[in-house]
Amino acid sequence: MTEQKIMVKPFEALADARFQKPWEKIMIGLECHVQLNTDSKLFCSCPAGKETEEPNTACCEVCLGMPGSKPALNKKALDYALKVALALNCNINEKFFFSRKTYFYPDMSKNFQITQYEIPVGENGFIELQGGKKIRIRRIHLEEDPAALIHESGLLSSNYCLVDYNRSGIPLIEVVTEPDMASPQEAREFLDQLTMFLSYLDVFDFENGTLKADCNLSVVGNERAEIKNVTGKKSVEKALEFEAKRQLELVKQGKQIVRETRGFDEKTLSTKSLRKKESEEDYGYITDTDLAAVVLSKKEIDAIRKSLPELHSDKAKRLAKEFGLSDYDAKVIAGSRFLSELFEEFAKSSSAKTANFFVSGIFVSIAHHDNKEPEELSSMLDVSQLKELLSLFEKGKINEKALKEAAIAHITKSKNPLDFIRENGLFKEASSGEIEKIVERALAANPKAVADLKTGNEKSLNFLVGLAMRESKGKAEPREIKRIIEEKIK
Ligand SMILES: [Zn+2]
Q: Taking the model in full, what pTM does it have?
């Protein structure tokens, strides 16, 4: 077998005339490690994702690397990797094999990690960002996760650390991009797009799975630094922001940037040097002869391609057309499979407008407020109880404020939203007649605002609505107040 070597392309090769002021331009490439949500590990039948259980109870001779043990590839993990590679526009290699990467740390007890080196599952794909820029994907390959090292705090912390092998052998895919991102924000957008694909393909557990990235950053024309093992999208963005500033400052001072591996400190949001960067050759990859080479037929690859679900861009177009949503709302909802399914479920019993208001307005803002992906809140929802809540809102029995408060109580405290409305007296009491009187009083007391409003001043409308809202103690709907004001000043 001829072993084609994938050499790391120097960033300098890409530092060309596209840039007016090269010393100001940064280039970012990511190596994203995504945990696949299979039931068992990559090469044995131990349960995957049992990190919360008693340490070292979900492991066997294979994932501990005992002499004589034989790994066997998990077919589901392979299918998941193929799905991701196809969805990200990669070419699929019909033949590939696994390699051993020399790895001398206690979190890999067999002293090598099984991964793919020469030929990955997929190559040469891309993800398109919102503005149309394509971020090229160099390769997607399968590999096993190492064990977890636990540094206990306490007197002896510097003398020992514990190892939990429950994690060892959990399937990961590594998605390696070209250094095509020009800012930390673009890197964040890339990861947002990537997680959308993972959500639609249903290959990632948003509540318990981990997404880590090794982030390569360089100022064009200079050496690059790699920030290892950054967990989560927000931290990736923060780590890159710090690193970009650090490197740009060094370049401005005429200092040299050292090629090295750095670590990210979540507390100080800064990066620090760990070691001089090793090269891929240093790992001494050898073919893993315990595992059979994978040979895929065109038919098998086509079957996976056909099994791909409707992905987010197609879904956004369909939702906009089918439910009359704005392009923006359709994109927000289609931004996750979970959100879009929730929307379509609510739209069965409520109008699309109400379902959209609840999902893209209220629910998404609750998730963002808690710094969570919408998927992470999925287990907190009782859809039938929420449907009843939306029906009350649609019938005009509760206002927007009550809807939002009941939703928050439901999602964050598992409270039945109807009980919450009842217990807190949130059913609308003010009748239309009362609201009308409140509006009349507000208009009579503020002739200047009324005059401004007649000249089309939107600010004075908001001012008057605010006054009437306060007067009604939040029981009236802003929309209804607006309607009455507009009627009165005609
Ligand atoms: Zn095992």
A: 0.75
